[in-house]
UniProtKB/TrEMBL annotation:
GO cellular component: membrane
High-level lineage: Bacteria, Bacillati, Bacillota, Clostridia, Eubacteriales
UniProt topology in membrane: Multi-pass membrane protein
Species in which this protein is naturally found: Clostridium thermosuccinogenes
Pfam family, one: Peptidase_M50
The organism's place on the tree of life at top rank: Bacteria
GO biological process terms on file: proteolysis
Family, similarity comment: Belongs to the peptidase M50B family.
Peptidase M50 domain mapped to chain residues: 36-108, 115-174
UniProt cofactor(s): Zn(2+)
This protein's name: Peptidase M50 domain-containing protein
Cell compartment(s), UniProt: Membrane
PANTHER family hit by this protein: MEMBRANE-ASSOCIATED ZINC METALLOPROTEASE M50B, STAGE IV SPORULATION PROTEIN FB
Keywords: Hydrolase, Membrane, Metal-binding, Metalloprotease, Protease, Transmembrane, Transmembrane helix, Zinc
């Protein structure tokens, strides 16, 4: 059974989850209609903030999904760290603007308005929540992107994941305390579970994005003619697959192989490592690769 209606609009895939049409009357019947609408619209505008920044910065938006809890956008990864951070901040910044606008509107034109207060509080909560340094929230992605410039893309992902797990554990304990105070309120507890489950998906996504970036980096270098580079030093007994984990998102890499006395044995380009990984097993070491390349030259 298909759960989504799909169509294209200006080369962007639009997908609507059919349960979205059922959640609105359900909220109306349970008496949570106003709260749900405020949250739903706020989440949609949050994602539209990301999309608007992406469009302004000429970053491709691949797909938009409308789901029962709002809207989700799939935006292309950017080699430019500044642009990437701006797109991540677009959502929370939109919520902050909406919160301030709703508060001022209520203060000036509708004093004591429950609707204005609801919109203001919902948006400020969304902004603060999404800026938490926890993956897959915007704050976690900002933290990972900022660290990637210093330690590499995948190592940054691992550090961000550890920080996220610490936050998730803290939120989990708060959830238990909340249940002790109010046995019917599971909200904080569910947030911690959501973060832990989402981390598993984010880890796979990070690996796929790094591989995609490395594969397509050659075409960007050929097109531009000039590209930023980074040197990596590795011992000859290290496997080729390990060096991939330490590559940056937006750098072309030169790999210098050292022997046990830390003397230079050979230098490889990133493309040579990629070619070797395609031609050999992933557990091949640099020492084995050097011996194999030398025997091929002699042959």
């Amino acid at each position: 059974m298909k759960t989504e209606l799909a169509f294209k609009f200006r080369q962007v895939d639009i997908k609507i989850n059919i349960f979205t049409f059922a959640i609105i009357p359900a909220m109306y019947l349970t008496g949570y209609f106003e709260t749900f609408i405020a949250a739903f619209i706020s989440i949609m505008l949050h994602e539209l903030g990301h999309i608007a920044l992406a469009c302004l910065l000429k970053v491709k938006v691949h797909a938009v999904r409308i789901i029962p809890v709002g809207l989700n956008a799939v935006i292309d990864e950017m080699p430019d760290t500044g642009k990437q951070l701006m797109v991540y901040l677009g959502g929370p910044f939109t919520n902050i603007l909406l919160s301030v606008a709703a508060y001022l509107f209520g203060l000036c034109f509708l004093p004591g308005s429950k609707v204005a207060n609801l919109i203001a509080s919902t948006n400020i909560y969304l902004a603060v929540f999404n800026l938490m340094p926890v993956l897959p929230l915007d704050g976690g992605r900002i933290l990972k992107t900022a660290m990637a410039d210093k330690v590499g893309f995948l190592p940054a992902g691992r550090y961000a994941k550890k920080i996220s797990l610490i936050f998730a554990a803290f939120i989990f304990l708060l959830g238990i305390a909340q249940l002790y105070i109010n046995s019917y309120n599971f909200s904080i507890f569910f947030i911690s579970i959501y973060i832990i489950i989402s981390l598993r998906w984010d880890e796979t996504e990070a690996a796929l994005m790094n591989v995609k970036s490395i594969i397509y980096r050659r075409s960007r270098l050929v097109r531009k003619g000039v590209y930023q580079a980074r040197d990596l030093v590795v011992l000859k007994n290290v496997m080729l697959s390990e060096i991939i984990k330490n590559m940056d998102f937006d750098r072309f890499h030169i790999i210098h192989v050292l022997d046990d006395d830390l003397k230079l044995v050979k230098t490889f380009t990133e493309q040579e490592i990629i070619d070797a990984l395609f031609e050999n097993t992933t557990d091949i070491t640099f020492d084995e690769l050097i011996k194999k390349s030398e025997s091929n030259k002699q042959g």
